[in-house]
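Late entry, written up from scratch paper. The run itself happened at the end of the previous shift, but nothing got recorded in the book at the time, so transcribing now.
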Amino acid sequence: MDFAQYKMTAPTLTDGVQAQPRLNVKGALVVSLEDASGNASGGASYSLASNQTIAATSGTTPVTGVQRGNYVWDAQFAGTSIKLQSLGSDGVTWRDVATLSASGTFAGEIRFGANAQVRLYNPNGTSDTGVYSSLS
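Output as recorded:
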């Protein structure tokens, strides 16, 4: 079926939220909700770790399907530093997004495209312990 003949529009809902229709790779219609700045709407939040230990130079199990938008990254851990990474477009390479050298909230902008895969990574020679982390 040729979907090019169908025009998809983005109706504005309450509070400036827009429904963003698109077709996924299997041709199914997917609708995401976004504000005027392109941020994910609906309070998307993702737990990246809950009292985990991340071994030296290793990463956590990736969180998949992260919605497009701007996020706040928060992490609590005992260790030297921790990195937030996203999977590159080649589907193999993990790219650094942000680094925390102590427990806290990352002060910069964190923005992901649709259906991002993210993980935490420990670049240090020793384990990070007691790791709690979220994106919201």
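DSSP finds no helices and 13 strands in the chain.
(Scratch paper discarded after transcription.)
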